[in-house]
Design goal:
This protein is α/β, with parallel strands linked by helices. The protein folds into 3 domains: 3-84, Arc Repressor Mutant, subunit A (Orthogonal Bundle); 91-158 and 268-292, Periplasmic binding protein-like II (D-Maltodextrin-Binding Protein, domain 2, 3-Layer(aba) Sandwich); 160-257, Periplasmic binding protein-like II (D-Maltodextrin-Binding Protein, domain 2), CATH 3.40.190.10. It has helices at 3-15, 18-25, 29-43, 59-84, 99-116, 133-136, 168-174, 216-224, 234-243, 272-292, and strands at 48-50, 55-57, 91-97, 120-126, 140-144, 153-166, 188-190, 211-212, 229-233, 247-249, 255-264. Strands 3, 4, 5, 6, 7, 8, 9, 10 and 11 form a 9-stranded mixed sheet that branches. A two-stranded antiparallel ribbon has the order 1-2. The two termini are 63 Å apart. 25% of the residues are buried.
């Protein structure tokens, strides 16, 4: 039996009229009348007698009203209490990403996120290598590069770009650069070539690096200390550029970036705590990258 039909009948019985019931329910008067007739047909009995001025309950109608009034009221009260109580995200959310993205982009967003959702605890796993979400019990991952097909859900948030940076002190002592060809006479700081990974250092005409390192944070510190010209993600060097501790070298040269994606386990629906942090990352990471790329 359709509970909505019982609710309509109850309202008609309480208001003693189709017009009043329709107004209370926000329905068309004709629809209310059809619902009551359908209920009577289903039960095989007349529930209401209709006059030009009012509606009266039959004996069967009085009996049905007595049976359903209390249960429907309790059901409405229970539903209202659930609707009035918002779901407050709480519990632990684990996010994995690279150390550079974690420190520069994710950490400030997590700080703001926890101000809004203090009941949510966040665990950050900062790993240079890709870690499996299930194995590390991670809920979200920010991953750089083209992703292989698989069961995980991925959403592209932006593109990471790279450029050359050096400290003013280094450039004052070694001279500025006006072309890529002049890079050979400078101390280069970049990752070593790796099979299957695009990087400036893998080009055949690239000079050998004075310091090879897979950690861009270390390369940033080397450049900041006057150690040479570093190939760095633009977002990572942006704060130093703004503070004047680094200078963009060959500013018109930008290396094609790698896609940045937010990865989640295909769980529907996501727990409120995970969905809340996911929404924050989706909304603010692209803007954070754009701000740090200027």
């Amino acid at each position: 039996m359709n509970l909505n039909h019982l609710t309509v009948f109850l309202t008609v019985a309480q208001t003693r009229g189709y017009t009043q019931a329709a107004r209370r329910l926000g329905l068309d008067k004709g629809h209310v009348s059809r619902v009551v007739r359908a209920l009577e047909t289903e039960l095989g009995m007349v529930l209401l007698t209709r006059t030009t001025r009012a509606v009266a309950l039959t004996a069967a109608g009085e009996q049905l009203l007595a049976k359903i009034s209390e249960p429907l009221a309790a059901l409405e009260s229970a539903t209202a209490s659930l609707e009035d109580r918002p779901v407050t995200p709480s519990g632990l959310v684990t996010v994995t990403t690279t150390p550079d993205l974690g420190r520069t982009v994710v950490a400030p967003l997590v700080a703001a996120f926890r101000t809004r959702y203090p009941a949510v605890r966040v665990r950050l796993l900062l790993e240079s290598s890709v870690v499996a979400l299930p194995a590390t019990r991670s809920d979200l991952a920010l991953r750089v590069g083209t992703l292989r097909p698989g069961p995980l859900k991925a959403r592209k948030l932006g593109t990471l770009e790279a450029g050359f940076f050096a400290s003013p002190r280094y450039l004052a002592s070694r001279g500025s650069m006006k072309s890529l060809a002049e890079l050979a006479r400078h101390d280069g700081l970049w990752p070593s070539p790796q099979a299957g990974r695009k990087s400036f250092a893998s080009k055949r005409d690239a000079p050998p690096a004075a310091v090879e390192c897979e950690d861009f944070g270390a390369l940033l510190e080397l450049a900041r200390s006057g150690g040479g010209v570093a190939l760095l993600p633009v977002f990572l060097a942006a704060r130093d550029v703004a503070q004047g501790t680094l200078v963009r070298v060959l500013s018109d040269l930008t290396f094609p970036g790698a896609p940045l994606s937010l990865v989640t386990i295909p769980e529907r629906p996501l727990p409120p705590r995970v969905a809340a942090l996911r929404d924050v990352l989706v909304e603010h990471v692209p803007a954070a990258l754009a701000t740090r790329s200027r």
